[in-house]
């Protein structure tokens, strides 16, 4: 007798309909392997837990708003021989998230800062953390838009609660009022409560120059630097253009010399 038709409505009522995906296969496995009832039940429960965790991961990944699927497995460490791999491996393990510590990634354009930031964010997602990837411009624009409709405080608290906030390209454009105050308020709210990862083409000592109010800038950067893990990526840009193959040679005619 096939019990699945009778179990289907009961499993749906209990919100366990995902078990139906593996029930037939697990039932055959139990029969062939002569498993005890408890072993059979354990397999079904493990399948359901795995399905739910995968659904949660997919939802977190969508909310993270990554630009692309960048992982550590795809990061070209050979191109940056000076990078501290041990430090990056420690960050990938997520200890800084438990410490509520910032991570600062600096280096010239094209050295892989955004890739590494998203890769560490992906690691945090796998560990069950909420992550949001955004640029400095997008972040300030979202706060400004929230202010326009009277939802600034709500948006600020929403951003403050994210386990890992990744701010890409800090200092690429100077902050203008009220963006500088908004950014400071957000960093102040997250200080020692949640981890913030910032990437920039500028060295950290130059970050205060992005603020028109130097005192406000120093107060903001001071919070970001405190107990921060700093990574410096120094190397040639991977965005360098490929050499042109079989390019036609341009010949410039020379004027004849006068006798």
Helix percent band: 40-55%
Query: What is the total tally of β strands?
Result: 5
Order of adjacent strands in the largest pleated sheet? 2-3-4-1-5
Shape: elongated
**How does the helix and strand content classify structurally?**
alpha/beta
**Could you tell me the mean pLDDT?**
89
State which percent range the strand residues make up: 5-15%
Gyration radius, to the nearest Å?
26 Å
Order of helices and strands: HHHHHEHEHHEHEHE
Low-confidence stretches: none
Instruction: State the end-to-end CA separation.
Output: 110 Å
Largest sheet: 5 strands, parallel
What's the total helix number?
Answer: 10
Structure report:
The protein is of the alpha/beta class and 259 residues long. Helix content is 49%, strand content 9%. It has ten helices and five strands, in the order αααααβαβααβαβαβ. It has a five-stranded parallel sheet. The radius of gyration is 26 Å and the shape is elongated. The relative contact order is 0.13.
């Amino acid at each position: 007798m096939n019990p699945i038709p009778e179990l289907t409505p009961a499993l749906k009522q209990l919100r366990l309909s995902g078990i139906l995906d593996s029930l037939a296969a697990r039932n055959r496995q139990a029969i062939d392997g002569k498993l005890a009832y408890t072993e059979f039940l354990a397999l079904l429960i493990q399948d359901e837990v795995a399905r739910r965790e995968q659904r949660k991961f997919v939802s977190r990944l969508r909310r993270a708003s990554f630009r692309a699927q960048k992982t550590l497995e795809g990061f070209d460490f050979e191109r940056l021989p000076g990078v501290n791999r041990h430090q990056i491996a420690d960050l990938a393990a997520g200890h800084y998230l438990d410490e509520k510590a910032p991570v600062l990634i600096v280096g010239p354009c094209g050295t892989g800062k955004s890739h590494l930031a998203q890769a560490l964010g992906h690691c945090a997602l796998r560990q069950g953390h909420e992550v949001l990837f955004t640029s400095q411009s997008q972040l300030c624009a979202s706060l400004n838009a929230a202010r326009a409709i009277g939802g600034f405080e709500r948006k600020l608290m929403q951003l403050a609660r994210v386990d890992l906030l990744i701010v890409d390209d800090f200092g690429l454009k100077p902050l203008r009022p009220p963006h500088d105050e908004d950014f400071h308020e957000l960093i102040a709210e997250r200080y020692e409560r949640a981890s913030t990862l910032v990437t920039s083409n500028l060295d950290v000592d130059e970050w205060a120059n992005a603020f028109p109010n130097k005192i406000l800038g120093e107060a903001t950067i001071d919070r970001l630097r405190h107990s921060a893990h700093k990574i410096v990526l120094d190397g040639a840009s991977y965005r360098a253009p490929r050499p042109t193959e079989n390019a036609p040679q341009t010949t410039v005619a020379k004027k004849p010399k006068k006798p």
